[in-house]
Amino acid sequence: MASSKDVAKRAGVSQPTVSRVINGSTNVNKETIEKVQRAMEELNYRPNLIARSLKQQKTKSIALISGALHNPFFVDSTTTIVNVAKAHGYRTLVYFEEQGNNEAVYEEVLKQQVDGIVLSSIFIDDPVYRELEHSKIPFVMFNRRHQLGGNFVEIDNEKAGVLATNHLLELGHSKVAWIGGPTNCSTFHGRLLGYKKALGGIVKGNWIKETNTTEEAVIDAVDQLLALDEPPTAIFAATDAMALSCQSYLMNKGYRIPEDMSICGMDDIPMSRHAAIQLTTVTHEASKPMGQYAVEHLLHLINSSKEVKEDMQVTLRPRLIARHSSGVKN
Amino acid sequence: MASSKDVAKRAGVSQPTVSRVINGSTNVNKETIEKVQRAMEELNYRPNLIARSLKQQKTKSIALISGALHNPFFVDSTTTIVNVAKAHGYRTLVYFEEQGNNEAVYEEVLKQQVDGIVLSSIFIDDPVYRELEHSKIPFVMFNRRHQLGGNFVEIDNEKAGVLATNHLLELGHSKVAWIGGPTNCSTFHGRLLGYKKALGGIVKGNWIKETNTTEEAVIDAVDQLLALDEPPTAIFAATDAMALSCQSYLMNKGYRIPEDMSICGMDDIPMSRHAAIQLTTVTHEASKPMGQYAVEHLLHLINSSKEVKEDMQVTLRPRLIARHSSGVKN
DNA sequence: CTCTTTTATGAATACGTATTCATAAAATTA
DNA sequence: TAATTTTATGAATACGTATTCATAAAAGAG
Fold it and tell me: Which of B66, B91, B141, B148 is disulfide-compatible with B152, CB 3.0–4.6 A?
């Protein structure tokens, strides 16, 4: 690959002059510009971003630490984040974090010298928070938050839990189960809290199923619920992905949705709208996607010169979308 | 951020010695190693991969130019490719290529100094092929191929088209439509060819709908088919994503699947198995995902010292999975 | 004890770029 | 015309690492 030195030699100028042409500096002779541009074309020159990053001490790239794409929620958010970052001239390094080993990913990311991090896989009491804070790299949490605050965009999960549960209660279901993920995630924590709140005192421990969010675990949870003396007639699944697993498994077992079991999810993934699915779900009311808040604020943090940066703490209001996976108890 | 120089100073050694410790060189005193490691910990040192890349003239990273994630097919392949690369110590830069502007993405990628490229968004006669060849960067095409050959993994799309169409014919459907994407993609090209082949002479031009693969375009195509004097009773949609769009739209219009319309897709995305969807589809027979072939061969190309590298041209055999979105014509 | 080999280390350098500083030439002002 | 400012350019350097080369010390061979 041709370097700026090669271009310089061919154009009969010095390397800094080539650099100036590349970066559109003023104060460079028009004829010189043309000479250099010609040489660049002839040599098929492309600036080496690695070298540039080293010199400038910034990479114009951010890291996205996302949940696995098996959950369609992260599909949309990943697309949003990558595209918004790109529109601002930033490249995104995408990491798909499976359960738990945040430390390893975090180590990886730091070595890459990214200018900032969007983090969606963090636990409420994750020690990684302190380390990130200490590293001085700007970071924004997305969808989940940490107990210590910081920058985040989230949905009001507790209110969402209340909305979903109340919806099912209002349809006449008194036996409503909760299936979710680890409650050391702020999302599941909040959604469970809302569920309990809506139910008031009458919460039964074995109606609450905390899984690892995999399809197998969800199926297992459903089986356990069905085996109860008093099986529930409605399920609030804490994500649409889990709701779909419930729905498919129950249908395969001959259950009709919603006649034999009402289901409410959360996230409003695109598939939920499919005519054969029609999943009742909870989403947020904001006019732009959550990921966009995250990236925009992250870039603000990166490019702000102020020593003390203001926090962004956005909690979006939830909204219920009633479709046909939930119905009146018969 | 502390540099290896800082570590060297603190440990009372030279910078190259720190470098040796980092890279596990032999011939370095045990006590020195310990001194250096202690200094690294105390300073919270992390090697700067940008600097390393510049020096070594390789980035240990590959680019994946994928179709947009709205198509679930690319969700799975992206996951596979990122994870396999990671398992081999390579980082993946992910690009989501919308229709057509391959050139721009390609320019971007070259500047990043990646060691290799997995390319899934390429047209049969894409000029980008020549440029990539000229750039000397190893690249492997994934899912789609180019007319000039090169390295690729694909499904036998023509045979897949035959399989799908024959399946519908065997169910008694004589009026089978095709809905697909741009036929300058090898995938759609082949699938259409197979469709025509299976139908023999009796192909009607207005049963063939070439769209841009968006939901709106697919809906439009379905509308056009329904408006025909002789509307088809079965549709072969060239991807599952498009098949789902057909299915949802038709159901919303009151059609029953498969009683009023049989649908066959292709790709076997996870959603196709959902009890409420039950999409008949075509997939491949291989024991490992296509993306894995692509990455493994790409890494082979990158690390092979031979001047002349052998091509990898894999065409996987297709297999029909009959579910309940297709049925006997009534 | 001398000569040779091995081990352990540092000095110098290169990767490709952007940036600072100095300076010559040109343009402007008085 | 002389003095000053502006414009255009190159030389030198830095970013953080890995690598080559030289060399001093230690170990082994005779």
Answer: B141
